[in-house]
């Protein structure tokens, strides 16, 4: 049986006081707080004193109350929890949880797309010793291609200039022309799929993350055995794209 939601009245009143002080940067006296919030004067006094003791409220020599030094501390902690990397990693954990697969977060760094983080799922499979910081074979892997596809054509050509298109499997693109066809298709679809192009028997689905300027800054992917991929392809695509869009919204990208 579910427990009903409960609130503690004194905590609610204390929070109301903090919110009120936030709207009055020059501060308020206890009587003013009591009147504005329609609180008993004695109750207001005790709540204020408790928050004063813990640093959430400051008192001037004129008995005016202001927000205390603990407020910016909490604000800083909140901003850190909302930092891009933190939110991107939360989304990565969610992707692994909803797919039950090993999930990867890729980011562009120093002109290369690297694996930034990995969360192993309960159905984990080993893919050619991928590790955090891995950047090799971008022409064969869905994760880097999900980002690279949204670069300008000139940037793509410069990036792959001089790079070897090693044929890892029968599905690996062997030259820039073949790769560009794939990248154009990725742009159109909004996601990338590697069907055994990097490792025989393994498929990968990836989707890009965009920032507020609609620049591709990251990508998510999952690696899946071919049989599982073949039976659940659309579901994997839907979940990876959902997480990528969620992360994009966190970064300020409006769809």
TrEMBL record:
<dbReference type="InterPro" id="IPR036388">
    <property type="entry name" value="WH-like_DNA-bd_sf"/>
</dbReference>
<dbReference type="InterPro" id="IPR036390">
    <property type="entry name" value="WH_DNA-bd_sf"/>
</dbReference>
<feature type="domain" description="IclR-ED">
    <location>
        <begin position="70"/>
        <end position="255"/>
    </location>
</feature>
<dbReference type="GO" id="GO:0045892">
    <property type="term" value="P:negative regulation of DNA-templated transcription"/>
</dbReference>
<dbReference type="GO" id="GO:0003700">
    <property type="term" value="F:DNA-binding transcription factor activity"/>
</dbReference>
<dbReference type="InterPro" id="IPR005471">
    <property type="entry name" value="Tscrpt_reg_IclR_N"/>
</dbReference>
<dbReference type="InterPro" id="IPR014757">
    <property type="entry name" value="Tscrpt_reg_IclR_C"/>
</dbReference>
<keyword id="KW-0805">Transcription regulation</keyword>
<feature type="domain" description="HTH iclR-type">
    <location>
        <begin position="8"/>
        <end position="69"/>
    </location>
</feature>
<dbReference type="Pfam" id="PF09339">
    <property type="entry name" value="HTH_IclR"/>
</dbReference>
<dbReference type="InterPro" id="IPR029016">
    <property type="entry name" value="GAF-like_dom_sf"/>
</dbReference>
<keyword id="KW-0804">Transcription</keyword>
<dbReference type="Pfam" id="PF01614">
    <property type="entry name" value="IclR_C"/>
</dbReference>
<dbReference type="GO" id="GO:0003677">
    <property type="term" value="F:DNA binding"/>
</dbReference>
<dbReference type="InterPro" id="IPR050707">
    <property type="entry name" value="HTH_MetabolicPath_Reg"/>
</dbReference>
<protein>
    <submittedName>
        <fullName>DNA-binding transcriptional regulator, IclR family</fullName>
    </submittedName>
</protein>
<keyword id="KW-0238">DNA-binding</keyword>
């Amino acid at each position: 049986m579910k427990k009903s939601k409960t609130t503690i009245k004194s905590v609610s009143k204390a929070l109301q006081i903090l919110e009120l002080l936030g709207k009055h940067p020059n501060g308020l006296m206890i009587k003013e707080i009591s009147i504005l919030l329609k609180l008993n004067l004695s109750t207001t006094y005790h709540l204020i004193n408790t928050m004063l003791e813990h640093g959430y409220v400051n008192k001037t020599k004129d008995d005016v109350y202001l927000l205390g030094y603990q407020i910016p501390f909490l604000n800083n902690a909140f901003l850190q929890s909302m930092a891009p990397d933190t939110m991107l990693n939360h989304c990565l954990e969610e992707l692994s949880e909803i797919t039950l697969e090993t999930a990867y977060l890729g980011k562009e760094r120093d002109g290369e797309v690297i694996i930034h983080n990995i969360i192993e799922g309960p159905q984990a499979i080993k893919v050619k010793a991928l590790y955090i910081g891995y950047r090799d074979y971008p022409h064969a892997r869905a994760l880097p291609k999900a980002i690279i596809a949204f670069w300008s054509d000139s940037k793509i050509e410069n990036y792959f200039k001089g790079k070897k298109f090693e044929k890892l499997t029968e599905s690996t693109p062997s030259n820039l022309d073949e790769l560009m066809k794939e990248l154009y298709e990725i742009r159109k679809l909004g996601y990338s799929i590697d069907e055994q192009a990097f490792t025989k028997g393994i498929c990968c689905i990836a989707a890009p993350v965009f920032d507020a300027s609609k620049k591709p800054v990251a990508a998510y992917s999952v690696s899946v055995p071919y049989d599982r991929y073949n039976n659940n392809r659309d579901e994997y695509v839907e979940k990876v794209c959902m997480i990528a869009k969620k992360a994009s919204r966190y970064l300020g990208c409006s769809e």
